[in-house]
C-alpha cells in the first residue's frame, strides 16, 4: 500500500483532473492497488473511492469510462470482503443502466467483467436475477 497519505490523496484527487492522461493513469494505479491486496481496498474505502470513480462512468471519453469500469471491477473481486459494489443495490442498478445505454463495446466488456465478478464473489441472488432479467447474461 502507499505509505504516504498525501500521495494517496493526490492520486485520488487526480481523478478529477482535466487532463485525461492523468485521469487514465490514476485509474490504472488505483485499479491495480484495488486488485493487489484486501488492505488496499479497505484503505481506499476510507476515501470513498467508489464515489470518486462512479462519475467517471458518465465521461464523454469512452477510454475514461472503460478504465473506470476496469478499476471498479477490481474493487469487486474476492479479495474485498467488504465489497461496496455488492452491498449497495443502487450502485448495481446504475451499472445495469449504464450497460443498457452504453454503445462502446470496450466499455460494455468492462461492465461485463464487473457483473461476472459480482455474481461469482458476492453471492447475491438478486444480482444474478437482475442480470438475467435484463438479458445481460
Summarize the structure.
The chain is 71% helix and 0% strand. The chain has helices at 5-13, 20-36, 38-45, 49-53, 62-75, 84-87, 89-101, 105-122, 125-133.
Structure characteristics:
137 residues, 71% helix, globular
Cα gyration radius (Å): 14 Å
Shape designation: globular
Topology, number of strands: 0
User: What is the count of DSSP helices, taking H or I runs of 4+ residues?
Assistant: 9
User: In which range does the helix fraction lie?
Assistant: over 70%
Note the main sheet: none
Cα separation of the termini: 35 Å
- Could you state the order of secondary-structure elements as H and E? HHHHHHHHH
User: In percent, how much strand structure appears in the residues?
Assistant: under 5%
Structural class: mainly alpha
Your description of this structure?
By secondary structure, the protein is mostly helical. It contains nine helices and no strands. The protein starts with a helix and ends with a helix.
Topology:
Elements: H1 5-13, H2 20-36, H3 38-45, H4 49-53, H5 62-75, H6 84-87, H7 89-101, H8 105-122, H9 125-133
Helix pairs in contact: 2-3, 2-5, 5-8, 7-8
Amino acid at each position: 500500500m502507499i505509505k504516504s497519505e498525501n500521495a494517496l490523496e493526490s492520486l485520488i484527487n487526480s481523478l478529477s483532473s482535466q487532463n485525461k492522461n492523468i485521469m487514465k493513469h490514476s485509474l490504472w494505479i488505483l485499479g491495480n492497488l484495488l486488485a493487489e491486496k484486501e488492505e488496499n481496498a479497505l484503505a481506499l474505502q476510507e476515501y470513498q473511492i467508489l464515489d470518486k470513480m462512479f462519475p467517471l462512468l458518465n465521461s464523454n471519453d469512452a477510454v475514461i469510462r472503460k478504465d473506470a469500469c476496469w478499476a471498479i471491477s477490481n474493487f469487486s473481486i474476492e479479495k474485498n470482503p467488504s465489497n461496496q459494489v455488492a452491498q449497495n443495490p443502487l450502485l448495481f442498478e446504475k451499472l445495469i443502466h449504464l450497460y443498457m445505454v452504453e454503445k462502446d463495446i470496450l466499455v460494455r466488456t468492462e461492465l461485463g467483467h464487473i457483473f461476472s465478478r459480482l455474481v461469482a464473489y458476492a453471492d447475491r441472488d438478486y444480482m444474478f436475477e437482475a442480470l438475467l432479467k435484463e438479458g445481460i447474461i
